[in-house]
Amino acid sequence: MTAQHEPNCAARATRNYPEEAWWVAGFSEEISGTPIRRMLLDHAVVLYRGASGRVVALEDRCVHRWAPLSMGRPAGDDIVCPYHGFRFGPDGQCVHVPTQRDIPGKAKVRAFEVRESAPFVWIWMGRGEPAEALPATIDWAEDPRWLTMGAALPVDCNYMLIQENVLDLTHFGYLHATTFQQPGWTAPPSEVRTDAGRVGYRQHFTGIRLAPFQAGPTGIGPDKDVERTDWGWFMSPAIHVAGIDIVDPSPGAGRRAAFSSRIVHATTPISPTRSHYWWFFAQDYALDDAQVARDVRAIVDATFEEDKRLLEVIQETISTDVRRDQAVEVSVKADQPGLKARLMLHKMLRPAAQALSSPDMQQPAAARSPRE
């Protein structure tokens, strides 16, 4: 089946990421009193946690001589440039120049709005007023009733290649056949829908066996048929939230019947062909079994390394193969969630594209009105 849909801008070296949106800047636990430099949406950003505990995000460039503030040191909630000691507040304003009393009026770096919501620190890179609500709230991230784990994984590909990968579970039976070993997903999802700028899928399985990483820890075993529901939501270009819910139809006296796991995929572009990828996994069973935690972590790590290797080669081919602008991309029914996500993304990108194509923006800078 071919489909009418927006072009795959992930297959081109374009900035296919809206700045007027919330993006993940990192795990909360990554941000400490030691400044770190992070490339986000083609911007160099310094992140640090001030003495008050607040997370600060500033342009990682001193306005004096371009030195990276990330190589400096915090002072309270401020940061001191490592080159000549200029000191900047969390709002980006220079508050001290060591060699003189007066501070130049333009001595200010850009400050970015940040919000902390476990397990992430979110950043707003746009010039407009930040959206009031974050794309997703992970209410189980700090819940002791869930076993949680996560990691950061840089991937040398466009971020939408990652988002479309996690929206398409039919690849599990091939790319992850010997690692994840999850049965099912031999057909497109039974339900795909859009709601309030999000794309969701759902697939229900009856009479199916569990994967090894589920069979033992749940106590159900590998030889019993269960009911399993897989679901996921593309909440925004920055984040995808998914889950697996298992029901044992005949658990036996005193035995538990329902088990759940959750996973979050957060993607933030570094550039058109490089991305930050953070994953965060949770399950509500086998909470105190250290060996189960190690086994699950090993499987998840191996699975995502398989994705990383494949996606990086796909991106390399897209970026370097002479056929990329003429090649036909064929879609099938199983691609519906990814195609709908592309449409959502293009709707978000259109206002910026229209602004860039306006007559005023196309004039040389010298020809624009002085008030611009």
Automatic annotation (TrEMBL):
One of its GO terms (molecular function) is metal ion binding. Residues 22-123 form the Rieske domain. Coiled coil: none annotated. Pfam families: Rieske, VanA_C. Keywords: 2Fe-2S, Dioxygenase, Iron, Iron-sulfur, Metal-binding, Oxidoreductase. It comes from the Bacteria. The keyword Transcription does not apply. Gene3D superfamilies: Naphthalene 1,2-dioxygenase Alpha Subunit, Chain A, domain 1, Rieske [2Fe-2S] iron-sulphur domain. This is Aromatic ring-hydroxylating dioxygenase subunit alpha.
